[in-house]
Amino acid sequence: MIKLMVSDLDGTLVEDGGGVLDPEYFQVILRLKEKGIYFCAASGRHASGIEHLFEPVGNEIFYIGGNGTYVGCRGRELYHTPYREELAKDMIENMRAAGMEIIVDGSDCVYTDSKDGRFLQWILNGYHFRVRQVEDLLALQAPVMKIAGCRMDGIAEAARPIMEKFGTRLKVTLSGNEWLDTMDPSVNKGAAVRILQEGLQIRPEETVVFGDQMNDVEMLRQAYYSFAVANARPEVIKEARFLADSNRGKGPLKIMKLFL
């Protein structure tokens, strides 16, 4: 019997950076809950962006933000993992040198010192993050959970030197085509799903997970019913047990409705 469904957002439920979810998802989530099946949205996005996207059912779901740095429910933090403080400034400097726009996840907002108007509009009106602009991220005096770099023209090439330099000390992962996410090495979506499963006393055999990118692999491994969407990276399709239709084809929605 299925008791928990977990889904990535960008590239799985919506387009990368998309700010609107098909309203039918909300109806299905509520009907699943009536049957005793919880829903959790798991994303590299900050929790404030997840809350906005799922506002109609915000009090009925769990959410995992920052690729697993944050687990919350009903606007309340259940769990978080801080960034390695001694590496934060070094990471920011390296991302700047690579020409990336940078956001830093705090507990209730994201911080940025970007002056790029296109980027700012994207995180404000696309992702709907709660954004606080600061003069210099290197002078930030606030708890940090995740540092993310963005290249809107494609991140992979610029990310390679950072992944090589920090890969043994931090969790460094590509998220979509534009983002490089960095967190404490213990952090990933799978670890956060496991925390949720343990708290709810739900086994992997009672869990469904949907994903499309490399930062979804660990949580796919936390569920017997692991689905890659058809537009997923080939490595992710290989990792998952099952294949759903693409995000544009509403693959996760079709699978979710099978359990009503």
TrEMBL record:
PANTHER family from the UniProt entry: HAD SUPERFAMILY HYDROLASE-LIKE, TYPE 3 (PTHR10000:SF8), PHOSPHOSERINE PHOSPHATASE (PTHR10000)
Identify the GO cellular component terms for this protein.
Answer: cytosol
Tell me, what is one Gene Ontology molecular-function annotation carried by this entry? phosphatase activity
Q: Which organism is it from?
A: Candidatus Copromonas faecavium
Tell me the lineage of the source organism.
Bacteria, Bacillati, Bacillota, Clostridia, Lachnospirales
A single Pfam family it belongs to is Hydrolase_3
Among InterPro entries, the record links this protein to: Cof, HAD-like_sf, HAD-SF_hydro_IIB, HAD_sf
* Annotated protein name in UniProt: HAD family phosphatase
Give the domain of life: Bacteria
